[in-house]
């Protein structure tokens, strides 16, 4: 796969050729039968939707088909030049990958004058991109109370509640459906507590309130002990508070107590001010949802170009969604800084193969219906495009779900491919910004971290500009290069980290999208 794709140099007005060795090109627009593609010397057979693949040569039944100069599947039947290549004639096929661990690692060219943004420096030195008061729950049973407390401070229904606190971004309740009916010593509870602990420590929260029921398996004391929240917030700190509904005296009294407490916490939170800090304090979670045939050509490689810039300026980027790098993981192991880091990634792939088999599934149960409608056929094709978000720098570490990210540079976090669950793990790990590419039109936000949405094509931008922050369709249209778009995205990252509101923040997204990974049996 090319380090950086220059679409304009490899395309005609009707199609895009990604690599000279590819067996397919990608339609820029809907093409009808009889259309001649002069650059490829072929004539289109039948109807080709935009973003879909067209065979450029005869492909024998069973033969591998290449895109990005990588195998994306095998031909089900013989395919003629000019034919549509999709689910009817292309299928997933397992193949041996040469992991070549650490063979492609190379020194990072760090910027001599690091970029900066206006961040909020907490008393302990952590740097925030937003300033929220957060309400977390130990169990589903306390979700209604937590939401009632946060709802009192909603700007859309009670605008005067935060009128005196202009430096506070809001009060958010992040609730979930777990916390009980699980093994008190098992991995599922440990992962939930790790996720909640990551949010409790997140610098974008000026303070945190944890609300429990009282009799749940996920006792607040157990959460505090596992995550060492007492050490993160010593007794003298006013930033962490916890109470149970049963001890406080029921729903009405607990809501009243929570509201009174938050009003007091807002006074302190409002004292936060922004000051210039290095871009090395940005940790961005990389997401793609509602991907299409353009994702790996425009938005994902453009985001990768922005990631390369962030890493050169000392920042951190978290690539995730393990099932959606499957089949392309060999491109990452080659960039690992050591064979040991490559092995950590391969181990997570093997875990997923076992996990899906145990649940009577397969790793190729992907792409989604929307992905296929947008031109993606197999998980191999989807993964190759998704990996483009990671840019070209070294893979410096691999983390499990919601583990604190302690390394600078490009890292990988093991998460499911489901965007809310994946991003929740990234934020728990320390992401203070999310960049989310979409080709079909995903609507998403991620409090307390702002989420930037990047469209892969201009048609989506025109249709859903209300939800999209930047249009990478300029790459497909030929009006911008990958590198130029990467620079725009990097500058938007800095502006957003400095306080500029994203579209999803304006719409109020972020609370419902908190979805910790639910592992194991519910008993």
Description of the structure:
With 523 residues, the chain is an alpha/beta fold. 29% of the residues lie in helices and 19% in strands. It contains 16 helices and 23 strands. The strands form six sheets. Strands 19-20-18-17-21-22-23 form a seven-stranded parallel β-sheet, sandwiched between helices.
Largest β-sheet summary: 7 strands, parallel
Q: Please give the order of strands in the largest beta sheet.
A: 19-20-18-17-21-22-23
Low-pLDDT windows of residues? 1-10
Measured on Cα atoms, how large is the radius of gyration?
Answer: 24 Å
Distance between the termini: 46 Å
SS elements, strand count: 23
- The average pLDDT is 94
Given the helix and strand composition, which structural class is it? alpha/beta
- Strand content is 15-25%
Helical fraction equals 25-40%
Gross geometry: globular
Please count the helical segments. 16
Based on the model shown, name its key terms.
disordered N terminus; 16 helices; 523 residues; alpha/beta; single chain
Summarize the topology.
Layout: E1 15-16, E2 24-27, E3 36-37, E4 42-43, E5 53-55, E6 64-67, E7 70-75, E8 84-85, E9 90-91, E10 116-121, E11 127-128, E12 132-137, H1 143-151, E13 170-174, H2 187-200, E14 205-212, H3 220-226, H4 229-232, E15 240-244, H5 245-248, H6 251-269, E16 274-278, E17 283-288, H7 299-312, E18 316-319, H8 329-333, H9 339-358, H10 369-373, H11 379-387, E19 395-399, E20 409-413, H12 419-428, E21 433-438, E22 451-455, H13 458-464, E23 470-471, H14 473-477, H15 482-497, H16 503-507
